[in-house]
Amino acid sequence: MSALPASTSVIPHRPAASHPRWLRLTHWLNALAVLVMVTSGWRIYNASPLYDFSFPSSITLGGWLGGALQWHFAAMWLLVFNGLIYLTFNIASGRLWQRFFPVGPKGVLHDLWAALRGRLSHADLAHYNQVQRAAYLFVMVDIILLVASGLVLWKSVQFGLLRELLGGYETARHVHFICMALLVAFVAVHLVMVALVPRTLRAMVLGNKDSGNKESV
Amino acid sequence: MKTRDKSTGLDEPTILLEARKLIAPRIEDRSRRDFLLRSLTLGGVAMLSGCSLSDNESVDTALSAISRFNDRVQGWLFNPNAMAPTYPQSMITRPFPFNAFYSEDEAPTVEEESYRLEVTGLVADKRSWRLDELRAMAQTEQITRHICVEGWSAIGRWGGVRFSDFLRRVGADTDAKYVGFKCADDYYTSIDMATALHAQTLLALTYDGATLPRQYGFPMKLRMPTKLGYKNPKHIQAIFVSNTYSGGYWEDQGYNWFGGS
Questions:
Q1: CA-nearest residue of chain B to A67?
Q2: Angstrom distance (rounded) from CA B137 to CA B169
Q3: Residue B43 contacts A where some CB pair is shorter than 8 Å
């Protein structure tokens, strides 16, 4: 039994496809937006490093501060509007509740332990184990915080309430950086997991046509 | 083959050359495909990040267009009643950092006796101003955060004439789009009229209670806590009101024109 994810029995009903078209499209657009935002953000960071290090210029985008700012403030539209479209579909289709909940520390630890012993099943890509649920929900919240702190850095006077909520301009700089670091850490783990279960990459590119059959089983 | 060999007299270099010609397109084709595949990977995208993508003219044009679009969005977001936070004297950053496109000892020296502030463009009264005349106007003071485009910020104390008072005194057309500045350090910039009329926009004549020192922009600096540092011109010599976009020193190199915070 321990091979099964903790919450299999709780799922009442699933939408037909595990990776519907809107999900795949928003996923890859988000990946592009994140890549541009992070690499241009590193260049902006280098102009006045908040901590005791700089990013190597070779892995940054923009060539100089002005160029990096142009990339950053262009890709922000993609990040925000693509993210809003994703969240809208996710909520409206009921996918958010069906796929990501319930989730709790007990289930996450259970599935994490199973995963570390290589006993977590990935047979059904439409089903997220609790570690996946926690990780994906985390990255959604993380990007929302990145956008919120970014808005404070961009327009600290116009978004005064948001500025106060985040503890002021200077604190927002730290929040923005830490959320970026956590996002990069997520991406690193995410890519390792994709490498371990390559079928997921195929599903995210082409969709998962088998999931309909699996559902009836 | 035989007959052909005979006719060419078994010319080895020619055969090799011909063989190369036949194979070359295939090799080239393969490497081109490999390159395309490689450029589709993350590594390929990272490769683009160095410079090549930024040097591409059409990418540059697109990014500039988005920056202009962002100017309009910021103009629309700008709330004339939203005030930048003010701070107690104890929070002033000391020493307040010097920042310009030149080093501190290269800051221009302006002589007060011969100094005249030029006012041109869409204004009723185009006469030049002496410093004393500006000092005779109602003075106001504020302690606000200066935010640099690089990310750092510092809190400073500026005093001077409310810029909206000055614009009304010279009979400026406040329906005009822009107010431009020319400076003694060859710096130049321009701002939107809404920000020019903002209550916290000061024609600063003092810093921390004393005459504005040379390194902070003597004889005067336009201090706007609603805009990033590079939008705040120092050593102002001429002010002009206009409906024609005139850019700025950094803006013409790619910094966002509105530069609001």
A1: B254
A2: 10
A3: no
What is the phi/psi pair of residue B74, to 5°? -70, -35
List pLDDT tens digits, range B104-140: 999 999 999 999 999 999 999 999 999 999 999 999 9
Same domain membership, residue B227 and residue B100: yes
Q: Does B48 have pLDDT greater than 90?
A: no
Residue of B nearest to A176 (CA): B151
Using pLDDT thresholds of 50, 70 and 90, give the confidence band for residue A216.
Answer: very low
- Helix ranges, chain B (H): 2-8, 12-40, 42-49, 52-55, 57-77, 131-135, 163-169, 193-196
Tell me which of B11, B35, B55 is where a domain ends.
B55
B153 plus B131 within the same structural domain: yes
SS3 B193: helix
Sign of CA dihedral A142, A144, A147, A149: negative
Structural domain span for residue B10 = 2-55
- Please name the member of B66, B79, B83 whose beta carbon is closest to the beta carbon of A74: B66
Q: Provide ipTM, 2 decimals.
A: 0.86
Written as one string, the DSSP assignment of B34-89 is HHHHHHHSHHHHHHHHTTHHHH-HHHHHHHHHHHHHHHHHHHHH--TTPPPPB--G
Interface contact A156, partner B, CB < 8 A: yes
Both tokens assigned to B82: 């939203």
Inside any domain, residue A99? yes
